[in-house]
Amino acid sequence: MESRNPLAEFFEGIVSWLGLSEGAAAVLSEMYLEKYSSNEFLGTEEIAERTGYSRTNVNLIVTQLEKLGIIRSERDLSKTGRGRKRMIYTVVKDIESLVHIGKEYAKEQLQFLSGIIDSILAEEVENTISDALTKTKKEIKKIVNRLEN
């Protein structure tokens, strides 16, 4: 049985908060370990081997992490020979940056919910429902304001 990366549980909490898949936790934790132990980049082959995920799944996850700006890629120029050079990846965000991304994600989700409330209130609804949704919207606005500070 493979031993579990001790950071995996920590990163499961972070990726859950960021709205990412559980698989992103294993990938991200392996990349953090590599960054802080050797400062080396990892290819999808190494990440797949360490996590037990398929290369296809790893490619999907690293694409998602790269779009969020959590990791960056570059061509592996150390390999000689013909053909396209493989992509290698490293973590570029620290924990504070991940928390900031999480706050932005939370604000977006709350604003989305606020929009749903607006849509419901635009229709005719019972007073008790209207009152409850109006109060909820005010609470959401307070939370979004706190997240902005």
Produce the secondary structure layout.
Elements: H1 8-18, H2 22-38, E1 42-43, H3 44-51, H4 55-67, E2 71-75, E3 87-91, H5 95-122, H6 127-148
Antiparallel strand pairs: 1-3, 2-3
Helix pairs in contact: 1-2, 2-3, 2-4, 3-4, 5-6
Structural class by secondary-structure content: mainly alpha
Reading off the top of the CATH hierarchy, the class of the largest domain is best stated as: Mainly Alpha
Globular, elongated, flat, extended or rod-shaped: what is the shape?
elongated
Give me the strand/helix succession.
HHEHHEEHH
| Arrangement of strands in the largest sheet | 1-3-2
Assembly state here? single chain
Number of distinct beta strands:
3
Could you characterize what this model shows?
The chain has 149 residues and is mainly alpha-helical. The chain folds into 2 domains: 8-93, Winged helix-like DNA-binding domain superfamily/Winged helix DNA-binding domain (Arc Repressor Mutant, subunit A, Orthogonal Bundle); 101-148. Helices cover 66% and strands 8% of the residues. It has 6 helices and 3 strands. It has helices spanning 8-18, 22-38, 44-51, 55-67, 95-122, 127-148; strands spanning 42-43, 71-75, 87-91. Strands 1-3-2 form a 3-stranded antiparallel sheet. The chain is elongated, with a radius of gyration of 21 Å. The termini are far apart. The mean pLDDT is 87.
Feature tags:
149 residues; mainly alpha; Arc Repressor Mutant, subunit A; 3-stranded antiparallel beta sheet
